[in-house]
Amino acid sequence: MKTTLTEENYLKALFHLVDNEGKVTINELSKFLGVKMPSVNNMMKKFADKKWVIYETYKPLGVTESGKREAALVVRKHRLTEMFLVKKMNFGWENVHEIAEQLEHVHSQVFFDKMDEILDYPKFDPHGEPIPDKDGNIIAQDLQKLSGCTAGETVTFASVTVSDDGFLSYLNERKLLLNTRIKIIKIEEFDKSMTIEIGNNKEVISRKATEIILVKK
To answer: Does the keyword Repressor apply (predicted)?
Structure first.
């Protein structure tokens, strides 16, 4: 049975919000999607009928394995599309999110499997987020926020938690791209802004940016 555009948006929200115990609240979904809680309740009752969630009044939702897989497959379409736009159509990483939002609702599995093949089965999207495989499996990453690092450390820029075009343009201007090695020179006590070294260049980046940038050691 094909999922509707609205159902896919809810599934994607579940993917992003579910905690380590497989739980998410109606309130969290409502805020994330900008949808009133009665509408979220009605949709989750439908999801419960499809065995995607366990729905009990006044309790957090339990996302089932089937629900997690369906959600991951929507995210797979989005992230594959972003990678295709960057690698094969030469879009900047800051320009692909909105286009992928539209194309992720195409229902042809063959279309996205072919896209995957053309890209030689990438594991990560242009923003460093893992791409679920065709069975909904996803690679676990051991990353931390740049803000959690200390002066003197050298780390590798691995991912971002926000793919907003304004933020990505901010990174472009500082030549701060994925897989860049970052040496932390100084952290300001006053505002926690960070002086970093990228190659032979030094940049000062805001606390807000260091909260969004994910790195690996």
So the answer is: yes
Q: Is the pLDDT of residue 105 over 80?
A: yes
Edge-first strand listing for the sheet containing 194-198: 144-145, 213-216, 154-160, 181-187, 194-198, 201-205
Q: What are phi and psi of 205, to 5 degrees?
A: -120, 150
* Residue 89 zone, left/alpha/beta (φ > 0; ψ -120 to 50; rest): alpha
Flag whether pLDDT at 127 surpasses 70: yes
pTM for the full predicted model? 0.90
Give the amino acid at 68. K
Distance CA 39, CA 100 (A): 25
| pLDDT on residue 1 | 64
Query: What is the maximal distance between C-alpha atoms in the chain?
Result: 58
Query: How confident is the prediction for the chain on average, in pLDDT?
Result: 95
Question: Which whole number is the average pLDDT over 123-148?
Answer: 95
Residues 6+ apart with CB under 8 A from 203: 174, 176, 195, 196
Under 8 Å between Cβ of 181 and 110: no
| pLDDT for res 163 | 86
